């Protein structure tokens, strides 16, 4: 399913390391006032002023985190930025800069790296961040992308994982479970393609969930929304693994328990219909799916009037004393302990 | 030549991602006052105050940048930090924090990663920096380490590559060429080992050059020395590739030329004797070897009295007008144009 319009193939060795970096970064412009010096010296130089800065990093590995047989390189570049920005926004900070390092085997021509960089540049442009550095090197096998993201935040707005208090509301942005189901559809089509390469898949019924997998967005808008609503969450975390795993991280860091209501989980209609088609339980998918890059936060009851009418925010439960544990309250009103699922890469 | 004292082998899947990160980072302590929050949230939080911060990143790939048949994992962890700190010091900045991301295949047991981390921790302790984040994930093949380093510097002290002016002195720290020759000795011993695994190599004559390859140091001391001497270089760059490649970077960035004197190149006696043994030209090695992690800088003539007696600093030439080009002045007093060698990984 990779769209390949390039007929030209340029060998990476034709450029060498410095030529390659210069070539790939030639279109980058500086947008942030805090970026004093970007690419081109031993290090980039930043001036955050009185704000605090946040730093986060993530590694994406071919064959582990992505499959190039259905992930176009441009989307991959875009997604590699998004997963890092999501961590910055989860601190209630504004993302300002990234560095991007790429290890790539000789099987990739220059044009493939240009596609990847086009996705990175698109994300940088849309989210208003500067690409200030990086490294491009060869690998013995496959493609690997390492991104470090930097953001700025006023001290009083920083939101950690450990600030949740009993009676706080548990709130999630957007909807969840779609990215995981999108991946199931793509995996199924890959198997179909292996059997019949001429088959033209009809994916109209899955456009939303596939886009959530291939081109996720980070919730920059939520940081602004919270500012506009004059709400500082008591804690916040991004949902890169499944919801239950992230809730448990937050409860552990804050020394609290929680009650999560199954009937409050925000699910897109495509998630419900596709889960039925795959004979899967949509609640399980929402709890364990991962890769939604939504934000999970806790908000003081006092702030409820400010958020209650907002379509971006759904109250899905509330925080309890630690001794009460973390539970899912099912539609049948029974309580079952929340269990972490999610990341299991080393078991593959 | 890897020393393996571990008889226990723990499978990585026994811990999972979060358990693995917690396990590997359990001994880390925070030393820098600017580190507000280290590992354990969506992002680390820093408070650089009125200083500017510098950011640099480097990727080390097994089979490209290192060979585990003679590079012990602890040394590799140490070196992966050093190569990044060197870039920070090349900005005349103090290194303060790093993030470390590791992709590793299942063939490595937990104990191997512990060795790697022990080297990272040793470097962090010696150089007084905080490990504030990272990512540990599986790879389909081999080991890859991505480090991002952060430093702090007062605005007036930042030293870029582009400030060299005609008549400035070209100055290098320490001595050069040793790391490359150390690699040649290790490669030779690896071939001997393949033929006769019972051979006990006698490496006494090569201790310095092997240490320069396996356990390089970054010149933190030079940043302090320059402060003590009250000297701010007009430009600076670290020597990760060969000297000639770095001189050409500096000349290009500053729009200047230079005369470099062959008879001024600082060479260790082991470099001279080992180069003879390998029937190689020591000047070529000094110019093209790389991995020395020394600093190359230009200094105003006015500052010459401050540096002339210092054993850490060697004047190796001077800056000229751009139109005159960059040249090596040989012992025979002939001028030949400097050529970039160095990094050629994509050609392998």
UniProtKB/TrEMBL annotation, chains A, B:
Pathway recorded for this protein: Cofactor biosynthesis; thiamine diphosphate biosynthesis; thiamine diphosphate from thiamine phosphate: step 1/1
Statement: the UniProt record of this protein carries the keyword Transcription regulation: no
Binding site for Mg(2+) 1: 57-58, 135
EC number: 2.7.4.16
CDD domains: ThiL
Amino-acid positions noted as binding Mg(2+) 3 in the UniProt annotation, renumbered to this chain: 42, 87, 238
Function: Catalyzes the ATP-dependent phosphorylation of thiamine-monophosphate (TMP) to form thiamine-pyrophosphate (TPP), the active form of vitamin B1.
Name of this protein: Thiamine-monophosphate kinase
Biological source species: Aurantibacter aestuarii
Taxonomy of the source species: Bacteria, Pseudomonadati, Bacteroidota, Flavobacteriia, Flavobacteriales
């Amino acid at each position: 399913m990779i769209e390949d319009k390039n007929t030209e193939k340029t060998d990476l060795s034709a450029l060498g390391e410095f030529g390659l970096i210069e070539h790939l970064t030639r279109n980058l412009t500086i947008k942030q006032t805090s970026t004093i010096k970007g690419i081109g010296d031993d290090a980039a130089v930043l001036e955050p002023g009185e704000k605090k800065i946040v730093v986060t990093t993530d590694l994406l590995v071919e064959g582990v985190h992505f499959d190039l047989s259905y992930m176009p390189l441009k989307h991959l570049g875009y997604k590699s930025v998004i997963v890092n920005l999501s961590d910055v926004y989860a601190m209630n900070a504004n993302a300002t800069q990234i560095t991007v390092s790429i290890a790539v085997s000789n099987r990739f021509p220059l044009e493939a790296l240009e596609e990847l960089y086009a996705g990175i540049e698109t994300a940088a442009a849309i989210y208003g961040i500067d690409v200030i550095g990086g490294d491009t090197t060869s690998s013995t096998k496959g493609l690997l992308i390492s991104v470090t993201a930097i953001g700025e935040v006023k001290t009083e707005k920083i939101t950690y994982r450990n600030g949740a208090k009993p009676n706080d509301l548990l709130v999630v942005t957007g909807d969840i479970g779609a990215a995981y189901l999108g991946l199931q559809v793509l995996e199924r089509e890959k198997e179909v393609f292996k059997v019949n390469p001429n088959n033209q898949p009809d994916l109209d019924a899955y456009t939303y969930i596939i886009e959530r997998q291939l081109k996720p967005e980070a919730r920059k808008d939520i940081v602004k929304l919270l500012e506009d609503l004059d709400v500082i969450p008591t804690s916040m975390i991004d949902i890169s693994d499944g919801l239950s795993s992230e809730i448990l991280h937050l409860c552990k860091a804050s020394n609290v328990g929680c009650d999560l209501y199954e009937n409050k989980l925000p699910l897109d209609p495509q998630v419900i219909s596709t889960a039925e088609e795959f004979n899967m339980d949509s609640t399980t998918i929402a709890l364990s799916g991962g890769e939604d890059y939504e934000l999970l936060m806790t908000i003081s009851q006092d702030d409820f009037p400010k958020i209650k009418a907002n379509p971006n925010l759904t109250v899905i439960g509330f925080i309890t004393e630690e001794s009460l544990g973390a539970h899912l309250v099912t539609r049948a009103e029974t309580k079952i302990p929340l269990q972490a699922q999610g990341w299991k890469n080393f078991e593959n």
